[in-house]
Amino acid sequence: MADSTPVMEGLDQSLAVKRPRLEAIYEWITTVDHKKIGLMYIAYALIFLVVGGFEALLMRIQLAVPNNHFVSPQVFNRLFTMHGTTMVFFMGMPMLFGFANYLVPLMIGARDMAFPRLNAFSFWISAFGGLLLYFSYFGGSGLYGAGSAPDVGWFAYAPLTANVFSPGHSTDYWTLAVFLSGIGSIGTALNIVTTIICMRCKGMKMSRLPLLIWLYLVMSSMVFIAVGPLTAAQIMLTLDRYVGSHFFDTQAGGSAVLWMHYFWIFGHPEVYILVLPAFAFVNEIVPVFSRKAIFGYPAMVAASIAIGFISLSVWAHHMFTVGLGPAGNTFFVFATMVISVPTGIKIFNWLATIWGGDVHFAVPMMFCIGFLFQFLIAGLTGIMLSVAPFDWQLSASYFVVAHFHYVLVGAIVFALFGAFYYWYPKVTGRMMSEILGKWHFWLFLIGFHLTFDFMHVPGLLGMPRRIYTYEAGRGWEMWNLIVSVGAIFQVAGIACFVFNLVRSYFRGEIADHDPWDAWTLEWATSSPPPSYNFAIDPTVHSRRPLWDLKHPEDPDSDYE
Amino acid sequence: MMNTVSTIAIDVQAEPPWVLPSRGTVGMICLIVAEAAIFIIFFVSYVFYIGKSLTGPYPAQVLELPIFSTVCLLSSSFTVHFAVVALRRNSLRNCAIGLASTVLLGFLFLLSTAREWYHLIHDDGLTIRTNLFGSTFYSLVGLHATHVLIGLVMLCMALGISLAGRMKEAHSERLEVLSLYWHFVDGIWVAVFLVVYVIGR
Question: Is there a domain that residue A86 lies in?
């Protein structure tokens, strides 16, 4: 294709020496290499994905039929708390940061992140947070003999978190785990922003950054502003519980609503922090499998930044039922509706990219198509819920649960799976199996729609979220059974995926350094990339440097 | 698997130099933004709970304007800037003097905060448990004082390096990053002064 650099081969052979296992483990634990840290983030997130999924499965078994006593009410409360906390803080964030760690330096032509040791610190502090959360199952009861594991819900509303109502240490474990995860997130976000601004290779102007990089820049900047309030609120909660201050103590004039504000000032931007990387993956995958450059690059960048800004002013749509007054309600209804404009721009640009393209339905692309449909529907129910009077009827019902799982699973997890299939050959040097991938896609798609399409209905029929069990004869039975059956399909899909991940590592077809004929810099180096990424610092002249190399007669740089 | 083909061409064309911002400065600005977000929440709590304490003592009864410590901390911003400028001009002695006076002023600030707290706790009986004023006051001022302490530790390290004669002109950028943090801590104090001692009283 293009000229090879003999330097890289010479250096590579020294690395191919086999090492004793203990030394390899030591190397992974002490590594500051962005690719290894990225992989550790992803592995850690995958473990928590399975754990959190298992908790969801237990809840679905409990709710499958009326008057069920599969688990006790206390255990059920712990399950939904742990499921939510795990999936947001210890699956979503580390997974997306893992991809960022792996991809950002490669895509901007750098050899590592800006602060490699801070990177390792952020990973280990987040990992410690996750372990602390699950240690609560053993240590949570403390001296009081109270319940183990946090059971205050993932948004832990005051005053339920006060010492009086949550004795023992389980809530403290929750607070500390979330606090540590926040510290790790801020550290990694700082690293990503600095890397993107200060480590770009020659010629990689801001206007030539791959869209994935732009989205991670916006996402990481949002982390500073969104995770700060959560960290502050956790400090206050810890002070309340340990030192006896009165921030959220309603007995002493403190305000429970203040906690809601603090949590959702974090909580709503957090949704966008999670979804922007999903957009990022789709931005990279859709053009490659449509064999076209992305449609409307500047509009995509502008829309991402707009989402970043607007998402900071919509938090109180989680609190319409609190009674914010007409002015507050109107503002937050309006802000929430406005955010669908830049999101709509993105959807149209993806469609325009696919339109007229030579579309290849490989597994990553299939997941992206799934993403497009499901994200659209998730957005539509989102607009429904943004209308305050509608929200008054359905707040804290299963309709809301169905809506946000449509975003988190239907959009984010689908894009994530696409990203796994797309970048797996880069990471391991082997392709993932297409057949297993298609099984995974269809099983998961069917399971997803069985579960989350039908979950809207009991919500509309009045089934509240977090309900332990329900009586027969309310019209909820059939819907709940379908929802639970869908969960089984999802588990089967995930099993295919995990099996595919492991099997392909040993038996997968050997991948070329550029199996998808893609255009961004990570495909220019070998698969897996050497520890220094690029033997010679690359120079780019357009948004698609590899296109320029493959088509010197018609480079992109002539048009940009 | 390890044998490699790179598709990146070696570029030999002469191009304008490729200059990017310094990592330290960008990283510190990011940290400052994140820290500012944390402080804003503590400020919001303070302002939200002004006048909502159910029992005394109230701010107007016990708080006094901390003029001395404010003067100390604000002037330390100038001395640390003096140290950075001196190092940039390779004047190592002036740099050490600037750092030493910054450490001294920061220490005086912490000392006067400690005296204020001692007075509040022992004479006025105001603790973090007493009322909402106590909770918000000690947490906000305490969070700021923690940042002063962290800054002081780092400044002391810089001073030690400087006194050991190991500080070089080449380190001026690092010292500047540290001074950014210190300026931020000072800026927060201005906000604390306004919110706690002017508006809150």
Answer: yes
